[in-house]
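Tutorial handout. Part one gives the primary structure; part two gives the three-dimensional structure as tokens.
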Amino acid sequence: MEQRRLDELAGRVKEQVLSELDRAQEPDDAIVEGLIERTVKREAVRHYLTLAERSRVKKLVFNAIRRLDILQEIMEDEAVTEIMIIGKEIFVEREGRILQWDKQFGTVETVENIVQKIVAGNNRQANTRTPIADARLEDGSRVHIVLPPTALNGPVVTIRRFPKEPMGMRELIRIGSLTQEAADFLGALVRAGYNLFVSGGTGSGKTTFLNALAEFIPPQERIVVIEDTAELQIRGIPNLVRLEAREKNMEGENEITIRQLVRASLRMRPSRVIIGEVRGEEAVDLLQAMNTGHDGSISTGHGNSPADMLNRLETMVMMGMDIPAEAVRRQIASALDIMVHLGRLRDGSRRVLEIAEITGISHGQVQTRTLYAFEEVREDEDGHIEGRLMRQNNLEQEGKLIRAGIQP
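Part two.
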């Protein structure tokens, strides 16, 4: 039977199964699978289905009822790193390239049902009153949702996928994101307690890189991780506290912000504080944590360069604290030690483009000094860019390395 007819049959089986399910009792997967099995068995006799076709229909129906419908097929493809839904259409990212998938949802209502399934599993809401929502799937994938009327061409859903096993520093070196020399340098800085800030554009790999940096944290330390939506996969730290922000409920109450969590974390006696991403006034509390004995703290943020990220940090701090700009810059220069900037090249590859040291204040401005910079060598005939992260200068402030007993 051709795929179109199998899809139509799966749709009919789904309707039969749903009509028989006692939705109020929230049947478990085993009950649903049993009902699907019996329904498909009846249909198989009428339509002369092969064993392979029976299996295909059962999977389609189960995914539609209990999983993410046709998205489940993509979710099982490890090569897909991003899924983008616009109305009924689906786009996927593979190996840094975005392509339209050859399948699409039958109706916009199907997409809306999937959205409600996702947000319900995260104790969040998405509706006409609250059309924008963030959530995560069971496998850790990050989901961003924008619904009509804000989204003009139907529901817009973006799913950022992460590998089952977090990509470590060794793998980043293997694929050319940075050199062994630069990784060893960053590892020494993390162990010595330098405060790091990872910047980059959307999809540049900030979360992946933060996970990799966390490999260098000594396992005996106590770490508090704070995220808007939990997605970091930090391992090897037994004394690890994970905190997640919470949106307002339907009554507009019970919101827990990143800023509240940062303040709370400082009462938990952390060795270091890791904030998945700073977007607003919580930058004030991050800097204060870095300036009050929590050396080795790490965070990320959206920026086009280290200089641009410093300007954005300044703006974010001033959103949460009414102090002169020069005082803010002194706070930043005192708190941050190292900026690591990531980017996506035109071939889709993610690279460390610059590692810069914060050297202080001069003429009222935060000063940086490039330690490593990516240098492009050539573009081969397949469009792949070859280059290398090259050392530009030596680290100027070696005090933390020396105190940690690490040879500069």
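Part three, for discussion. The first helix runs from residue 3 to 20. Residues 39 and 210 are 48 Å apart (CA to CA).
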